[in-house]
Amino acid sequence: MDETRTRARGRRPAGEGTRGAILAAARTEFAARGYAGTSVRAIARRADVDPGSVRHWFTDKGELFVASVLPQGVEPAVFVERVVTPGVDGLGERLLAAALRVWDQDGGAPFRAAFSGLTADDAGPRDVAGFLSREVFARVAGALDGPDAALRVSLVASQTVGVLVARHLLRVEPLASLPAADVVALVGPTLQRYLTD
To answer: Tens digit of pLDDT for each residue in 11-57?
Structure first.
């Protein structure tokens, strides 16, 4: 009798490979249909998983979108923890430097893809902002003192997004071609002031 077993037909089993398949499917779906036109079911179908598997790995469509447009291997929680752990001193510079490391890859292609995927409807920005508020901004605000920490973090976020838009979408020179270290040296102190003054 043959003891080898063949894999049963059906959905992909859960595991880290499943998460990768979901992210790959999400990248394809969001690129083809934009945020509004993409459903969790369509992503699950493309990844050959049950929609419940998508929800197991990602709490909502906003989180899935963020994870799918970030370069592979970048996890928002780990990203924030590495930036915040050293403390408040220099936090503005570290936040901007980390954002530039992520979004400057491939000449800013990940940022352009994320931005274009979000601007087609109102739900995309709202969902992604909700995810970022919970998973990124709240963690940064938790490292700050004072009742206006959330406001200060939102100012840092707005300034950072503005730099990224000018750098990668509008390609405003000389900012667009300025080395990242120079951008951090010029803009980082302003972000630090938002956080600590």
So the answer is: 545 555 888 899 999 988 887 887 888 899 999 999 999 999 999 99
Q: Give the CATH number of the domain where residue 86 resides.
A: 1.10.357.10
Both 95 and 123 in one domain: the answer is yes
- Cα–Cα dist 193/197, whole Å: 5
Instruction: Name the residue range of residue 84's domain.
Output: 76-196
Domain shared by 124 and 150, yes or no: yes
Question: 34 and 121 share a domain?
Answer: no
Same structural domain, 50 and 104: no
